[in-house]
């Protein structure tokens, strides 16, 4: 099963609702990989002993991991955190999230600056490239539990848009341009 993703409408209504366009416009896994998103579907039921997850972590050097249970009782500054997640931002490193319970919306900007909404659910492992604009919200289930992965000492710093001069942003836009150039040359 592929990740469910779609282009968002332009309405300002409740962010926890799906925000499909009318009619809905789904986004293919090719389009997601074009903007540099990596995706795996794993079995979350026994994540502590999952051989597939172990292999991915080893291959990509994700030696750091912790768990986040996103509910008011377990997270300090819950409302503030959700607010920060919802503010469009980038990071200087990959953002790697493995979703274990509940669900939510991970929104990313594509190369034409359109919002793509990815509906993340248990078993979805998603890697966002450094420098991609994104944001996150819970959906109407109001709950999510996830694993954060990182290479080495984690850096959670986020940089709110605009960030056109940030090295990670420049590198990212350059990589998109190169990809587009290579695609043209292949035709
Ligand atoms: C809660 S999943 C990811 C939210 C986010 O973009 C972040 O932590 O930087
Ligand atoms: Fe982020």
Automatic annotation (TrEMBL):
Cofactor: Fe(2+); Ni(2+)
Location of this chain's protein in the cell: Cell membrane; Cytoplasm; Nucleus
Main localization category: membrane
UniProt key word Oxidoreductase: yes
Record field: catalytic activity: 1,2-dihydroxy-5-(methylsulfanyl)pent-1-en-3-one + O2 = 4-methylsulfanyl-2-oxobutanoate + formate + 2 H(+); 1,2-dihydroxy-5-(methylsulfanyl)pent-1-en-3-one + O2 = 3-(methylsulfanyl)propanoate + CO + formate + 2 H(+)
Gene giving rise to this polypeptide: LOC115743132
Domain of life per record: Eukaryota
Positions contributing to Ni(2+) binding: 89, 91, 95, 134
Note accompanying the cofactor annotation: Binds either 1 Fe or Ni cation per monomer. Iron-binding promotes an acireductone dioxygenase reaction producing 2-keto-4-methylthiobutyrate, while nickel-binding promotes an acireductone dioxygenase reaction producing 3-(methylsulfanyl)propanoate.
UniProt KW Nucleus keyword: yes
E.C. number(s) listed in UniProt: 1.13.11.54, 1.13.11.53
General function of this protein: Catalyzes 2 different reactions between oxygen and the acireductone 1,2-dihydroxy-3-keto-5-methylthiopentene (DHK-MTPene) depending upon the metal bound in the active site. Fe-containing acireductone dioxygenase (Fe-ARD) produces formate and 2-keto-4-methylthiobutyrate (KMTB), the alpha-ketoacid precursor of methionine in the methionine recycle pathway. Ni-containing acireductone dioxygenase (Ni-ARD) produces methylthiopropionate, carbon monoxide and formate, and does not lie on the methionine recycle pathway.
Gene Ontology terms describing biological process: L-methionine salvage from methylthioadenosine
Topology of this chain in the membrane: Peripheral membrane protein
Cellular component GO terms held in the UniProt record: cytoplasm; nucleus; plasma membrane
Keywords of this entry: Amino-acid biosynthesis, Cytoplasm, Dioxygenase, Iron, Metal-binding, Methionine biosynthesis, Nickel, Nucleus, Oxidoreductase
Similarity comment text for this entry: Belongs to the acireductone dioxygenase (ARD) family.
Protein name, entry field: Acireductone dioxygenase
Residues annotated to bind Fe(2+): 89, 91, 95, 134
């Amino acid at each position: 099963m592929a990740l469910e993703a779609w282009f968002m409408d332009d309405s300002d209504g409740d962010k926890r609702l799906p925000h499909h366009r009318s009619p809905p416009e789904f986004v293919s896994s090719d389009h997601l990989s074009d903007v540099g998103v990596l995706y795996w579907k794993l079995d979350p039921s026994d994540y502590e002993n999952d051989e597939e997850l172990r292999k991915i972590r080893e291959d990509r050097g994700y030696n750091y991991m912790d768990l986040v249970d996103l509910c008011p009782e377990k997270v300090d500054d819950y409302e503030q955190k959700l607010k920060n997640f919802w503010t469009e931002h980038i990071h200087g490193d990959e953002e790697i999230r493995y979703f274990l319970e509940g669900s939510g919306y991970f929104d990313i900007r594509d190369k034409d600056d359109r919002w793509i909404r990815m509906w993340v659910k248990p078993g979805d492992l998603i890697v966002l490239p450094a420098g991609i604009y994104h944001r996150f919200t819970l959906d109407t289930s109001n709950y999510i539990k996830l694993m954060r992965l990182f290479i080495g000492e984690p850096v959670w710093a986020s940089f709110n848009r605009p960030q056109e001069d940030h090295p990670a942003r420049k590198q990212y836009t350059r990589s998109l341009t190169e990809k587009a150039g290579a695609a043209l040359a292949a035709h």
